Amino acid sequence: MSIQLDTMPKLGFGLMRLPEKEGKIDIEHVCHMVDAYMRAGMNYFDTAYVYHGGNSEKAIKEALVKRYPRDRFMLATKLPAWCMKNEDDRDRIFNEQLERCGVDYFDFYLLHSIEDGGNGETYERLNCYNWGLQKKAEGKIRHFGFSFHGSPAYLTQILNAHPEIEFVQIQLNYADWKNPVVRSGELYEILHSRNIPMIIMEPVKGGTLAKLTPELEAMYKAVRPDASIASWALRFVGSLPGVMTILSGMSTEEQMRDNIGTFAHFEPLTEDEKALVEKVKTIMLNVPQIGCTSCRYCTPGCPMNIAIPDVFRAVNTMNLYGDVFRPKAFYGGLIGQGHGRASACIACGQCEGVCPQHLPIIELLREASAKLDA
């Protein structure tokens, strides 16, 4: 069964940053967001075994699966290499996912976060590609692919070795197009040249491209006064040929409304607008920033309970806006909630081992502590 591109919504609902209330996913809030998304004629939902500590899959069962006919929506989830030790773990996790989500099959199933070495070697060692094809033959998976955070050379190697792959999910946004670590542009060109459909994650770079400095926001507002800043990042990705679906990890109904508005009557960037995005990017990248996308893969295993993405958000705010008071107040709030200080890092390296952005987190926390703990 090949992917019918014309049936895919341009906007996908990413379930990694769902709204929370008192430390738990706010199911009522998620239901409202699901309903708004479905009313707009969109129906692609992306979760994973590890999102929200395993509760994202359970939440989508309550907010979507129990409330809509199965043929009304497409559901994607992922197999995590770092949760497996042997081949038996493949079925153990997969069956648990079916139970968590309350479904009999997944429309899209991905090997999660492939990168050079590490996760990539685990999927090969545990024969996960053939296993995926077997699940597809059993009708438990409709489409089989992977999400990718590695090098262009490794992507080419995998695609050559596994022509059975139907789609690939990559991180892509205008800030990361030439990022020497992420290398979005090179990954895009490889996939586009092979006509492999792409699902895009982090189009707004974890919210970084939704709020810019007043100077940069004014440049966008001068051209489209009523358009949100985030819409420029989404339109950049949506204007690229070969992009199948663009995931947005929405956590508020306001974000949902804005993104639906962007895609309900989608307008590709004009040539003048492409030039403006390039100009904004050039200015923006001249300000040093920590390239954290707030995926939060680093936080569950931190022995000191450091809210690493939030610490980096405070540092980026200081760097971008020259503001000290509010980032320090925000950081103080984290400590007040029981999170460890940046200075509490014991350099165990757990966080660096799972970071899709390959950030030197230990060193960055030392630098953050110098700014925030002083």
Q: What is the name of the CATH superfamily of the largest domain?
A: NADP-dependent oxidoreductase domain
Give the CA-based shape.
Answer: globular
By CATH, the topology of the largest domain is TIM Barrel
Major sheet: arrangement of strands? 1-4-5-6-7-8-9-10
Q: Care to count the β-strands?
A: 10
Under the CATH scheme, which architecture of the largest domain would be assigned?
Answer: Alpha-Beta Barrel
Helicity level: 40-55%
Mean pLDDT: 94
Which class of the largest domain in CATH terms?
Alpha Beta
Structural class: alpha/beta
Secondary-structure blueprint:
Layout: E1 11-14, E2 20-21, E3 24-25, H1 27-39, E4 44-46, H2 55-65, E5 74-80, H3 88-101, E6 106-114, H4 118-125, H5 128-137, E7 141-148, H6 152-161, E8 167-171, H7 184-193, E9 198-201, H8 214-221, H9 229-238, E10 243-248, H10 253-264, H11 271-284, H12 308-321, H13 325-336, H14 350-354, H15 361-372
Parallel strand pairs: 1-4, 1-10, 4-5, 5-6, 6-7, 7-8, 8-9, 9-10
Antiparallel strand pairs: 2-3
Account of the protein in words:
By secondary structure, this protein is an alpha/beta fold. The chain folds into two domains: 5-284, NADP-dependent oxidoreductase domain (TIM Barrel, Alpha-Beta Barrel); 308-372, no CATH class. 44% of the residues lie in helices and 13% in strands. It has an eight-stranded parallel barrel with strand order 1-4-5-6-7-8-9-10, surrounded by six helices. A two-stranded antiparallel sheet has the order 2-3. α7 (184-193) links the parallel β8 and β9 (198-201). It is globular and about 55 Å long. 40% of the residues are buried. The mean pLDDT is 94.
